[in-house]
Write a structure and sequence with these properties.
The chain is mainly beta. The chain is built from one helix and 19 strands. The longest helix has 25 residues. The mean pLDDT is 78.
């Protein structure tokens, strides 16, 4: 063949090569996708980031709405549906931040968005702000932040630590069976501490709590045998004579007193337990480290009136205290 013919053949081959490459590039998005593992229906916990679900047809016109979803570490997309009618689980969580979503999964093909199914969300939280902790304290119904009284049937689960800090108590995803709790129960648990301001707007906002303590790892009730700290002391009643004498009369000395008393928080706003001293006025209580006070269990208008000052209980120590009961005799 002539040189012109070879040149024409070469040009044709080059053109075909270019067309083949272009066709390959064009067809790549339509290549058979890698098989996706779809979880079974039921309870699920997914780690990933909150996203607006991408459309299936990425080449067509894109609308501006945001269908909430999570893209997990395997690049799978799950649609999210809030189990709360006020949408407090999803509201306020920014997109493209690490999160964990707990809920119930239903496999379902979405005709519009890339999604392998829907998670009905019961809990969503950022994982880049979680702090792991083991806390112990008293199970309480959280007080309102503004000081207004709670309703008779209202109880937002809370934990009051021995340092006086309130936490919202979330038992939703613990792997340990949690028995029924009664206000005043002493408990210890391990889990994640998430600041309130890092969570979506929710019903927690009205209560006095700086963070939510989500129990994930362990939960136990504390009995007196579990505690290595407490308070030991004596109760003395006086004065027992109407006039103080000099020198003092041994018969008028303060005397041991059997009394029913209340152990309270340091500010006196919360009764932790009620106890009775023995005939010799002695008592012993097992409590966690913290600051406490002791007072009469009866009304302050009833004599004798018993009270102590602040009682500091260090770890692994039984603090010693004397409780004075005033007879009112002058």
């Amino acid at each position: 063949m002539s040189a012109d013919t070879w040149e024409w053949v070469g040009s044709g081959v080059a053109l075909l090569g270019v067309l083949a490459i272009g066709l390959a590039i064009y067809l790549v998005p339509y290549a058979a996708p890698k098989p996706v593992q779809i979880p079974s229906a039921g309870p699920i916990s997914v780690h990933g980031q909150l996203v607006c679900l991408p459309h299936k047809n990425e080449r067509g016109p894109q609308t501006l709405e945001c269908a909430f979803g999570i893209q997990d570490v395997e690049n799978r997309y799950f649609a999210l549906r809030d189990s709360d009618p006020t949408y407090h689980n999803l509201t306020g969580v920014p997109t493209n931040v690490p999160i964990v979503v707990d809920g119930t999964f239903t496999p379902r093909e979405d005709p519009k968005y890339q999604s392998i199914g829907v998670i009905e969300v019961t809990r969503i939280a950022r994982t880049d702000t979680e702090e792991r902790a083991t806390l112990s304290g008293t199970f309480v119904c959280l007080p309102h932040k503004d000081g207004t009284p709670t309703e008779s049937e209202e109880c937002a689960y809370g934990l009051l630590t021995d340092t006086g800090a309130f936490y919202g108590l979330d038992l939703g995803i613990t792997n340990t069976a949690v028995p029924n709790l009664t206000v005043g129960d002493r408990i210890s648990a391990s889990g994640a501490v998430i600041p309130i301001d890092e969570l979506p707007a929710s019903s927690w906002a009205r209560y006095r709590a700086a963070a939510i303590f989500t129990v994930t790892d362990s939960f136990t009730f504390l009995s007196p045998d579990d505690l290595k700290s407490g308070i030991r002391g004596s109760v003395l009643l006086g004065p027992t004579c109407p006039v103080q004498r000099v020198p003092s009369d041994p018969a008028c000395a303060d005397k041991p007193y059997k009394a029913t008393l209340s152990l309270t928080s340091a500010d006196g706003s919360r009764v932790i337990t009620t106890f009775t001293s023995d005939e010799e006025g002695n008592f012993s209580l097992s409590v966690t480290p913290g600051t406490y006070r002791i007072r009469s269990a009866s009304s302050s208008s009833v004599w004798p009136r018993c009270a102590s000052g602040d009682i500091l209980v260090p770890p692994d120590v039984y603090a010693k205290v004397r409780v004075s009961c005033d007879t009112g005799i002058r």
